Amino acid sequence: MIDDATWAALERAARDVQQRAWAPYSQFRVGAAVLTEDGQIFAGCNVENASYGATICAERTAVGSAVAAGHTRLVACVVVGPLADAITPCGICRQVLSEFGPDMPVRCVAELDLNARLDTTIPELLPGAFSGVYLRR
After folding, report:
1. What is the predicted pLDDT for the residue at 134?
2. What CATH number should be reported for the domain whose range is 4-136?
3. CB count in 10 Å sphere of residue 2
4. 59: annotated active-site residue
5. Which alpha helices (H) appear in the chain, and where do they start and end?
6. Which candidate, 14, 22, 85, 88, has a CA 20 to 30 Å from the CA of 61?
7. SS3 at position 70
8. Annotated catalytic residue within 59, 99, 111, 124
């Protein structure tokens, strides 16, 4: 169970990094923060590219930072999007998040309305996720 103070710290980290997003094409700045088993927070923002397929989402940037620091088990994620409604991770990000936190809670928060949020989980966002179990047959 994630306590309110930890959720607040995750949200602050996601909001802070959202301001550094590289989004010159869409102007759609997203920030994300993930929590490791030992309580460390890693944040990431979206990084767009003129070759749109090379763009990386905020959630995957945060996961990559955590993995680069040696963490492969995540226990929570916050995503902040630039709208008045909470946005959820895209399909690719849902799959990546499920690899490192298959049961983790995810809080989606709107930048323009602090009360607009969605508390969900990876299994709710990605039922029947593909996993490494299938590769070990």
Report:
1. 83
2. 3.40.140.10
3. 16
4. yes
5. 4-18, 58-68, 91-100, 122-125
6. 85
7. coil
8. 59
